[in-house]
Amino acid sequence: MKPEVPPCKSLCLIGSEDWREIADIPLIEQVASKGKPMIISTGMASREEIQRACDATIDIPGKDMTLMKCTAAYPAPMAEMNLCTIADMRKRYGLNI
């Protein structure tokens, strides 16, 4: 059983790598229900995982969610940044990127 999400003072960051938090839909729903700004990292996530995370919060009033366009490599070589996907992500998910 997962512990209660600690209170977020200003914003909450949901990661995409270490613990695959972006795929933890109950966690995302719980954080979104707190009404605090939430940033979801997308570096290691598939389009499907990102979509599921977005879909999980559709009916949660007061959510404030932003997707962070990330590249898994650090420092990221310019050729791997693929920044042109930002416009596609904005259109596809309807969120701030």
Task: Describe what this molecule looks like in 3D.
The chain is of the alpha/beta class and 97 residues long. Helix content is 32%, strand content 13%. It has four helices and three strands, in the order βαβαβαα. It has helices spanning 25-33, 47-55, 78-81, 85-93, and strands at residues 12-14, 37-41, 64-68. The chain has a three-stranded parallel beta sheet, with helices on one face. α1 (25-33) links the parallel β1 (12-14) and β2 (37-41). The chain starts with 11 loop residues before the first strand and ends with a helix.
Q: Share of helix among residues?
A: 25-40%
**Radius of gyration, in angstroms, nearest whole number:** 13 Å
Largest sheet: 3 strands, parallel
Number of helices: 4
Q: Return residue spans where pLDDT drops below 50 for at least 5 consecutive residues.
A: none
Please state the average pLDDT score: 84
- The strand count comes to 3
Approximately how much beta-strand content do the residues carry?
5-15%
Q: Helices and strands: which structural class?
A: alpha/beta
Quote the distance from N terminus to C terminus. Answer: 32 Å
Order of helices and strands: EHEHEHH
- Which strand order spans the largest sheet, edge to edge or round the barrel? 1-2-3
Shape: globular
